[in-house]
Structure formats: structure tokens, C-alpha cells
Amino acid sequence: MAKTIMVVDDSLSIRQVVGIALRQAGYDVIEGSDGKDALAKLTGQKVNLIISDVNMPNMDGIAFVRELKTRPAYKFTPVMMLTTESQQEKKAEGQAAGARAWMVKPFKPEALLAAVQKLVLP
Predict the structure, then answer these.
(1) Domain tally, the chain
(2) Where in this chain does the record put each Response regulatory domain (predicted)?
(3) 3-state secondary structure of 3
(4) Cα-based torsion angle of the residue sequence 23, 28, 31, 36 in order, rounded to the nearest 10 degrees
(5) So what's the pLDDT on residue 122?
(6) pLDDT of residue 98
(7) Which run of H or E residues covers position 64?
């Protein structure tokens, strides 16, 4: 059975690029346009990994991860931040919220898939 990865980014083009790379690698993909949209789509189904942007309207990626980790079904779901932010403070804030990995845009699809393979839940 295919593993499911949620991609949360306010940029449609980023969601498309990441979605294409993941689908070609055999993953199922759920997309969210920001933190609020993503939380609304997480209804208890198994998600093996979440890839989220940091800077988004309505609810940013760090607030999204904090909220996600309060939900029993997603407490242990690994989260990778995919963002233009590379400052150490932002990374520390993301890790404190519960993010397991940090990848800076622009990214290479191969590097993204390698990180996904390391993080994705069995």
C-alpha cells in the first residue's frame, strides 16, 4: 500500500513540483494551501509524513506543526519544513514545534526524495 504524504504550501507551483516528485516515487499526496486548510484535511487518516512551508497566510508552518502535535493521531507524524527560511532561529523554532527536518528552497527533487525516504513512517 502506498504511503501518504501531505504537502502544505501556499504556493501552488511548489505543491505541484513536490507532488509530482512524490507521486512519481509512488507516494499518495494530500495537498493543503496553508496550516488551517491542512488541519481541516487531517481527519484521522494515516499520514506517513508532512512536508510544510513556514511562511503562509492564515496559519504559518510553525503554528501548524504546534497544532498538529496536539492531535493524538498526528503526535508522532514526522514533519519536514520546506522553506526559503535558512536562519538558525527559524530552524530552532521549527524543531521546538516538532519539525524533524528542514530543507531550504530551491531544492532538488532527488534531495527531497532522499530526505523523504529517511523520514517517512513505516
Answers:
(1) 1
(2) 4-120
(3) coil
(4) -150
(5) 83
(6) 98
(7) helix 61-68
β partners of residue 101: 80
Given a cut of 50, the residues of the chain with pLDDT beneath it are: none
Residue 35, domain extent = 4-119
- The pTM for the full model equals 0.97
Q: For residue 85, give the C-alpha cell.
A: 527560511
Give the CATH number, domain containing residue 69.
Answer: 3.40.50.2300
CB-based contact 4:30 (threshold 8 Å): yes
DSSP secondary structure letter of residue 73: G
Distances (CA, A) of 122 to 4, 47, 74, 77: 11, 10, 14, 11
* The three three-digit cell numbers of residue 20, written as one number: 509530482
pLDDT value of position 79: 98
What digits encode the pLDDT tens for the residues 51-65? 999 999 999 999 999
